[in-house]
Design brief:
This protein is mostly helical. The protein has a three-stranded antiparallel sheet with strand order 2-1-3.
């Protein structure tokens, strides 16, 4: 009797609730899952297809060049004149490095300075007003900045102050690229600084540190990973800029090898744009147009390596709060 009473006192197990939803809902979820999976796979396939085409067409260009010239010597000549059969890659590489370096010398300090002021010194109301203005600057067409670099930066800064003789120069193009890159560096850097917990600022202030000391020795080191990401994005943006360099550098028809930033030159992107603009631009050597694929592959490899280096560095120095 006692056993029966004990068994009766045990509460009955609750009936499990079916949380799978209706069949129609499960079908909709399956359709959405397939759509998102298809979108992801499509983007991957497009990227792979681009890389494969660049690699295959670049190999075809090298084979054609070897057949016509007997060697790959035109890849290391005195300049980049593809319609004459001169495909000096170092001319494009050095020109790209010069323009990118000048651009980052302009964009890095100005962009970081703007980010520090907006994130650490500006009032919330002023920040809400000025940050959208900086972001709007990123929407200025690059062709406008290229024309500005040619008509104002070149005569008033490069020629008047730096002593350049030519209206077209890598320096003018680099300054224009730097102005174009400032909003990107400033926006990403400011977001990185704002992500630093206020507790670190309060702890530094509690120890008697001044605002400048807190910013330089606490906030900036804590936001290193984000700042590096901003600079990597800026470098990638500067390397890939086309119209500013095409207009202001003066290498649309080709360029001799030069390391002088005050003289005319060209970059990888400007060389591709000038050579691929209209069929009249690719008349001449039969290898002229195929050379674009090799330049595109080289440009892709540079930006890819930059992104890998930046990602690994960011992972190494990233602070989690």
């Amino acid at each position: 009797m006692a056993t029966e009473t004990a068994i009766a006192s045990v509460p009955a197990m609750p009936i499990p609730i079916d949380l799978t939803g209706s069949a129609a809902r499960r079908r909709r979820e399956s359709v959405v899952r397939v759509v998102f999976l298809g979108a992801g796979l499509t983007s991957i396939l497009i990227t792979v297809a681009i890389v494969v085409i660049l690699v295959v067409r670049s190999l075809d260009f090298l084979s054609l060049l070897r057949e016509e010239e007997g060697s790959l010597a035109p890849l290391w000549s005195d300049g980049w004149f593809p319609r004459r059969g001169m495909f000096d890659l170092k001319t494009l590489l050095v020109g790209s490095l010069i323009v990118t370096g000048i651009g980052m010398l302009v964009a890095a300090p100005l962009g970081l300075g703007a980010a520090v002021w907006l994130g650490e010194y500006a009032s919330p109301r002023l920040r809400r007003t000025l940050k959208p203005v900086i972001e709007v600057l990123a929407g200025i067409p690059s062709v406008v900045l290229g024309f500005f670099a040619l008509t104002w930066l070149s005569p008033n800064i490069v020629q008047s102050i730096l002593g350049g003789e030519s209206l077209f120069s890598l320096m003018a193009a680099g300054l224009g690229v730097g102005i174009l890159t400032i909003p990107l560096v400033a926006t990403v850097s400011e977001d990185s600084l704002r992500s630093v917990p206020n507790a670190l600022r309060e702890a530094s202030a509690g120890l008697g540190a001044r605002k400048a000391t807190t910013t330089l020795r606490v906030v900036l080191p804590a936001a290193t990973s984000g700042l590096v990401a901003a600079f990597i994005l800026g470098v990638s943006r500067a390397v890939g800029e086309t119209m500013v360099v095409t207009i202001a550098a003066g290498g649309t028809g080709g360029s001799l090898y030069t390391t002088d930033p005050l003289g005319p030159g060209t970059t990888m992107t400007a060389a591709m744009a000038s050579l691929a603009t209209g069929t009249d631009q690719v008349k001449g050597a039969s290898t002229a147009f195929p050379s674009l694929f090799l330049v595109g592959l080289l440009l892709f490899a540079i930006t890819f390596v930059l992104n890998i280096i930046g990602e690994r560095f960011v992972r190494r120095v990233r602070n989690r709060y």
